[in-house]
């Protein structure tokens, strides 16, 4: 009887507590300018990365993120312009950043906050939400790389053969054909789901990329996350996290996901803006130390999942090299994190061969373990031919080499154009690793008369 009475009293007390108004914690905006603002009254209760909601004088709401804490002040950046926000505006804690990813998101275009950009109506939320910030799978329990993967681009399939769960960097200056190459990969790669993260993309190019390069078939199995170049730094940074989070959702279901991110450099630039606003000192070429700490945290999330989960994220990340300088800080840091790099050369594109991949400067660190002996011999021979032809290019242009002087050079002169022709590929073409090596073998079997 006493137990029953105690339960009744507890239920009565719980009901009374539920009817009480919920306590809310508020601060006030102390200063604001651009997309940065300071809040007083909350510093003792919040942490770095916490979300805040600002209430404007006209009832509008602006979301921000805490980037620095000093004494009683919290410095935050906003995800949108601070129009309507002034000194004294109320700031309250907001829920942490999550995405309710759902199967119905395939074929959709959204911004980093999960809002649709394609005019097809609201996105249906999934039953579970995933945090945008997450740790990579533990290194000791992470599965090994899977079998080799058909990327659908002959130059990549033959010279930088990729395995499921591998991470490659696409290094290029602007205007060398990165977007077209990404569209070829999205349409031709052997995967279940494609996730495209467009970080700092030009606004006018989004529809062109979706309709002309990607097309309806490519979009049907893809989720596109976009933050245009005019977006605040926080939103551009969140585009990379959102794309990775969506990829992790589908990989967690045991599916093979191809994650294409364009570009890691603009992600790093957004981090630099945030770091400078938070008071970090500029270091290498103006990049703050936090940039080089955050890059591996993002990139290591791609790859195989934990042992026992067949899902994997194969990541291809573009890196913009300023002035064709492949040793600039971001490119150098990313190259050391990833499992290989692909170099796109402007001179090759200017010569009319696309994709403009410099196969001699490109490398996949997993190639020795995923090629058959015959394929490995083909690849080594092709590299020798192209390397020798490149060494002799100046003499050939000057007419200083006489045919018959060196049989190896004669062979390189004969075979290099055939290999170059094999590497050229139109946007609508596809292929497999096997067909790429078959085409390479055919190019290397040219008879001495060039037939």
Automatic annotation (TrEMBL):
Gene Ontology cellular component list: cytoplasm; type III protein secretion system complex
Location of region: Disordered: 120-141
PROSITE patterns in the cross-refs: ATPASE_ALPHA_BETA
Keyword Transit peptide: no
Catalysed reaction equations from the record: ATP + H2O + cellular proteinSide 1 = ADP + phosphate + cellular proteinSide 2
Domain of life: Bacteria
GO molecular function annotation: ATP binding; ATP hydrolysis activity; protein-exporting ATPase activity; proton-transporting ATP synthase activity, rotational mechanism
Keyword tRNA-binding found: no
Keywords of the record: ATP-binding, Cell projection, Cilium, Cytoplasm, Flagellum, Nucleotide-binding, Protein transport, Translocase, Transport
Residue ranges, compositional bias (Low complexity): 120-133
Biological-process GO terms, alphabetical: protein secretion by the type III secretion system
Subcellular location: Cytoplasm
Domain AAA+ ATPase per the UniProt entry, residue ranges: 164-349
Record-linked Pfam families: ATP-synt_ab (PF00006), T3SS_ATPase_C (PF18269)
InterPro entries per record: AAA+_ATPase (IPR003593), ATPase_a/bsu_AS (IPR020003), ATPase_alpha/beta_chains (IPR050053), ATPase_F1/V1/A1_a/bsu_nucl-bd (IPR000194), ATPase_T3SS_FliI/YscN (IPR005714), P-loop_NTPase (IPR027417), T3SS_ATPase_C (IPR040627)
NCBIfam families xrefs: fliI_yscN
Protein name in UniProt: Flagellar protein export ATPase FliI
Organism: Roseicella aerolata
Classification of source organism: Bacteria, Pseudomonadati, Pseudomonadota, Alphaproteobacteria, Acetobacterales
Chain's gene name: fliI
């Amino acid at each position: 009887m006493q137990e029953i009475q105690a339960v009744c009293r507890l239920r009565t007390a719980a009901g009374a507590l539920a009817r009480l108004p919920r306590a809310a914690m508020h601060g006030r905006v102390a200063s604001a300018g651009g997309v940065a603002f300071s809040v007083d009254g909350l510093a003792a209760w919040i942490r770095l990365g916490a979300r805040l909601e600002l209430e404007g004088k006209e009832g509008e709401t602006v979301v921000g993120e805490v980037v620095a804490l000093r004494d009683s002040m919290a410095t935050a950046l906003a995800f949108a312009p601070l129009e309507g926000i002034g000194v004294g505006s109320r700031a309250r804690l907001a829920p942490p950043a999550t995405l309710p990813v759902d199967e119905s998101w395939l074929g959709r275009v959204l911004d980093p906050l999960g809002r649709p950009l394609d005019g097809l109506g609201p996105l249906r939320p999934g039953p579970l939400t995933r945090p945008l910030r997450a740790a990579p799978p533990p290194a000791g329990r992470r599965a090994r790389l899977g079998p080799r993967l058909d990327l659908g681009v002959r130059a990549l399939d033959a010279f930088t053969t990729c395995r499921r769960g591998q991470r490659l960097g696409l290094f290029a200056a602007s205007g060398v054909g990165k977007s077209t190459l990404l569209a070829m990969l999205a349409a031709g790669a052997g995967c279940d789901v494609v996730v495209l993260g467009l970080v700092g993309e030009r606004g006018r190019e989004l529809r062109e990329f979706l309709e002309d390069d990607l097309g309806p078939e490519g979009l049907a199995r893809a989720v596109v996350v976009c933050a245009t170049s005019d977006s605040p730094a926080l939103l551009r940074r969140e585009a990379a996290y959102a794309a990775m989070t969506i990829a992790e959702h589908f990989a967690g279901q045991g599916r093979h996901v191809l994650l294409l991110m364009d570009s890691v450099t603009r992600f790093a630039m957004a981090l630099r803006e945030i770091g400078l606003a938070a008071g970090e000192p500029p270091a290498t070429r103006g990049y703050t130390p936090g940039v080089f700490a955050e890059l591996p945290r993002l990139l290591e999330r791609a790859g195989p999942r934990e042992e026992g989960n067949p899902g994997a994220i194969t990541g291809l990340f573009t890196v913009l090299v300023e002035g064709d300088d492949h040793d600039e800080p971001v490119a150098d840091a990313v190259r050391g994190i990833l499992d290989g790099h692909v170099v796109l050369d402007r001179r090759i594109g200017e010569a009319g061969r696309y994709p403009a991949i410099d196969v001699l400067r490109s490398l996949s660190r997993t190639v020795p373990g995923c090629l058959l002996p015959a394929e490995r011999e083909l690849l080594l021979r092709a590299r020798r031919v192209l390397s020798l032809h490149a060494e002799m290019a100046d003499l050939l242009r000057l007419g200083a080499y006489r045919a018959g002087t060196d049989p190896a050079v004669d062979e390189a002169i004969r075979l290099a154009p055939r290999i170059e022709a094999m590497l050229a590929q139109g946007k609508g073409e596809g292929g497999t690793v096997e067909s790429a090596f078959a085409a390479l073998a055919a190019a290397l079997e040219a008879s001495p008369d060039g037939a």
